[in-house]
Design brief:
Blueprint lengths: L6 E7 L5 E4 L7 E4 L9 E6 L2 E6 L5 E4 L9 E6 L6 E4 L7 E4 L5 E5 H4 L5 E7 L8 E8 L20 H31 L13
Antiparallel strand pairs: 1-12, 2-3, 3-11, 4-5, 6-7, 7-11, 8-9, 10-11
Length: 207
């Protein structure tokens, strides 16, 4: 299955069967929750400058990290107000499932406690290993046209499209956010590896 930028998806953890859920109470906590199909469990992925962003249908927040002071295992995933870059790769063992990865790293979006199926299990980043709790099924939902504002994609007949000036302005704004965020990630990665005596490799094909 290919991932289409205009569509919305429920991200279902392969190990637990629970959905990636943005809290409707505090508006930022991301956890695994029994699938109910609500808008807070629906995300719309978009491609901007060759990376992906995930925008929550319910709140409009983006999938991001709770902190960037140092990239490490167990940093929580949170809903944030600006687009954050992610890579999406097919899992090598099951090409129908995907890994969501911090760009230029091996940190995967991971359902904590080895994929605990209980409601409220936090979602965090963790170094990649052969674990089903780091793989996700993208179960397709309905079209969500608001995200056309920040997608590099062709105009689709039958769907609302804003003016070219509005698209350009919003794309430039989103790309500026992503460029800054990606530069910060790269800077923190360099710090992370340098302090450990390793050279940071940015070739995502090695993941």
């Amino acid at each position: 299955m290919s991932i289409e930028p205009y569509n919305t998806y429920i991200l279902v953890n392969v190990k637990s069967g629970t959905a990636l859920d943005l809290s409707g109470t505090d508006g930022y906590t991301v956890s695994g929750w029994e699938r109910h199909g609500g808008e807070n469990q629906r995300a719309s992925p978009c491609i901007i400058t060759e990376v992906w962003t995930f925008r929550n249908v319910y709140s409009g927040k983006y999938l991001g990290l709770a902190e960037l002071s140092e990239l490490r295992d167990d940093i929580p995933i949170q809903g944030v107000d600006y687009p954050v870059p992610w890579d999406i790769f097919e899992d090598e063992l099951d090409r129908s499932t995907y890994r969501i990865v911090v760009p230029e790293t091996s940190f995967n979006v991971d359902l904590s406690n080895f994929g605990d199926p209980n409601n409220g299990t936090l979602v965090a980043i963790w170094g990649q290993w052969e674990a089903l709790n780091q793989t996700w099924r993208f179960e397709q939902g309905c079209k969500y046209t608001m995200d056309i504002f920040v997608c590099h994609a062709e105009e689709t007949s039958g769907y609302f499209r804003p003016s070219d000036d509005a698209v350009s302005s919003l794309q430039n704004s989103a790309c500026a956010h992503i460029s800054h965020h990606r530069s910060l990630i790269s800077f923190r990665l360099d710090q992370y590896w340098t302090t450990r005596g390793f050279k940071h490799h940015s070739d995502s094909s090695e993941l």
